[in-house]
């Protein structure tokens, strides 16, 4: 059995194993990454991570990104991961471009990398358009045939919650709370993730508003549980904050693992800027 080379990276504490499948055995490496994602991501019996990301050739863009959550499921998109992807491609010499077009499950997205000392330090990503129609999330509420889901009541764990749903290619359910630190995330998060109204499950963000331009957020991720940060989640939170009149369109999102700067532009594109860090290279 051939060894799998990887690079451990993180974006605001959201950590991934990056696998280069641009030069050889692409299909085989993608299959291995998918089949072994859960074992590789196990923090005791494996390497440890929130997911595995495969860098492969693309016919539609500079490169293609495939992501596998730590439970082995394949999400359409990942925000912290695409910043790590852009850094990996540049720093490993797969391309010297600081602007990349990346094929993802949510379409072709563009990254702009900032260098320090010749290596990528931060990455700005045009995350594409926010999708609000209930069918696009998807979320199925009895009284919502189509259109956005903004501050709608949903019963979860025997309690009514006001939810706002946004898709950034992957599904997000945003809930505003008074004290995010005290929130029983491990107890409530899974009940949102697997709620019947979300046919493809959902990521759920619990948000404490500090000011119209600043929020604190914790996230229970679909297929990964609580993580230290979620990029697509921070984008969804900014859109939801603006739709609920709680924030503006430019928000600094404080997460357990670091900060992300989000701008929901008037043309509905969401721009995310944040760090990407390489930790070590390894082989299993
Ligand atoms: O949609 C999902 O299943 C997410 N768990 C994918 C990972 C999202 C990520 N945390 C992000 O930053 O957007 C990587």
Description:
The chain has 284 residues and is an alpha+beta fold. 18% of the residues lie in helices and 43% in strands. Helix 2 (79-91) links the parallel strand 4 (63-69) and strand 5. The longest helix has 16 residues, at 26-41. Bound molecules: (2S,6S)-2,6-diamino-2-methylheptanedioic acid. (2S,6S)-2,6-diamino-2-methylheptanedioic acid binds next to helix 2 and helix 4.
Number of domains: 2
Radius of gyration equals 18 Å
Q: How much β-strand is present in the residues?
A: 35-45%
C-alpha termini separation: 10 Å
CATH superfamily annotation of the largest domain: Diaminopimelate Epimerase, Chain A, domain 1
CATH architecture tag of the largest domain:
Roll
Helical fraction: 10-25%
The tally of strands reads 17
Instruction: Give the bound compounds.
Output: (2S,6S)-2,6-diamino-2-methylheptanedioic acid
The top level CATH class name of the largest domain? Alpha Beta
